[in-house]
Design brief:
Distance between the termini: 35 Å
Number of strands: 0
Largest sheet: none
Order of helices and strands: HHHHHH
Radius of gyration: 21 Å
Number of helices: 6
Shape: elongated
Structural class: mainly alpha
Length: 137
Amino acid sequence: MQTTTEESLVVQKTKELCQTILDQPEFQTMRQQIESFMANDEAKLQYQLLSERGEYLRHKQQQGLQLSDEEASEFEEQREQFLNNPVARGFLNAQQEMHKVQESVGQFVSKTFELGRVPNAEDFDSGSCGHGCGCHH
């Protein structure tokens, strides 16, 4: 795939895939959910505070320090408040769905390189731990 023609064909097909993703109604819904979140200062602040608090607590645990019951319950309360915000919930759902699409596309491309052909459903249902595993699940 060293020639310019081949590279531009791959890029062209990649752009077509990108456009196909953009044209999906589900993608439009995800974008709307993300845009709603980005326009909602309260939800963004909740997210920022929750993220900072979670990072602080993780760091504390990594240092071998015990979390107090109060710290844990305050974090859970912040988390519940965030998850009860419909805009925040929509944002998280959209992030998860976009990640699934990215993961799926990546798996197909990786499996294509591995197999040297376009994979089919059975190629993903093999049950093994990966190429060269030898476990034969």
